[in-house]
Amino acid sequence: MELHIAVSKVKKYASSQSGDTVEVVERPNGGLSVVMADGQSSGRGAKWISTMVVRKVIALLAEGIRDGAAARAASDYLYTERGGKVSATLNILSIDMLTKSLVITRNNPAPVLLSQDNDLQCLDEPSLQIGLYRDTRPKISEIALAPGLVAVAYTDGIVHAGSRYGQSMDVEDKLRFLLEYSGASCQKIADDLLQHALDLDRGRPTDDISVIVLQVTDKDGDEVRRMSVQLPI
Amino acid sequence: MELHIAVSKVKKYASSQSGDTVEVVERPNGGLSVVMADGQSSGRGAKWISTMVVRKVIALLAEGIRDGAAARAASDYLYTERGGKVSATLNILSIDMLTKSLVITRNNPAPVLLSQDNDLQCLDEPSLQIGLYRDTRPKISEIALAPGLVAVAYTDGIVHAGSRYGQSMDVEDKLRFLLEYSGASCQKIADDLLQHALDLDRGRPTDDISVIVLQVTDKDGDEVRRMSVQLPI
Across the interface, do A230 and B3 touch by the CB < 8 Å criterion? Predict the structure, then answer.
């Protein structure tokens, strides 16, 4: 099998920097984790928060700590640092090679979409952002790795896209279309979802937007591991 | 301008895991850093070392510490942890948005190749790996960001490719060809260099191999930041 991950991000219109942070890191026992945080509000303050949260989670994962424990630790840490006054959403998508599973950790009211065997599911069990209360627990789903598995996570920039103009995005419907009709690559799915949100916001995103798409294929390609990054500077 | 980074990695033939670690992280003042370490020997022990080194560097960079200081700290840390008995090579390629420059940090006998204005340069000033001595200093080069800039860094799997069969790879020549004749994308350059090394090793790499290609283009694309990862699982 082959794992593909794509991340597409854009910052709020006219904002100095994105308050969303997404990082991909190797796990000590093989596999990797994508960690995404959206700091409360936008700009520099939000970036500081989301970076702090992602760093904390990454540092803990690197020590072999499990995703759920890392999310709880990040919540307690943010709560303690900011006295419960600042929140962040947190998602972790991990490929755990010990259990051969995809582990989805949500501290985010926004859902994670999951497609297995051509069946699209919305993981939308109520889930709180971190930092506001002691003892905030994440929602965790564990899914056996199998070809065809697709998971899509995003920040609330997608959820609120178009809201200024009385519109909203049906992410599930859009994703279903992309999966069914285009046999799209991971990056294409991430880009199309982001572009759709940008269109609804008329090209001027009203919030930072980040989309993660993770896909497991049955391709037995080469043994090469690849990573690429593209950004405007 | 647009920044493109591509990383291609493969592990030593029949080895459980690669002893090379490469991670890309955001810098607190904008821009990003690619950190690559190759732990002494191969397999699990080497992975442990390279992960430790990369984590240390990333944690320091995240606090705003400059690349050179982070490399020196990582060296002292490894030296102290392992009593000077274990070494690792370390490269950091950073896009620093405060100085609008590419900062290349080398603690690696292997050179870094740099192409500016169609002129290919080999940064091969003698440079020691970290961990063996106190006070090991990196070689640092700082280059103003400009379209057309290309930097290529790699671990010694490239340097020793083919050595078992009495052959060796002329990386400079190969890169010159890729830049001149194919107008190749970043990922294509990384893949082609890696493939050439694999061919010289007859498909069974005698060491872990990692290649990083960083490219600055004059393309004024969209404002979207993209990241993608592909790996066999």
Answer: yes
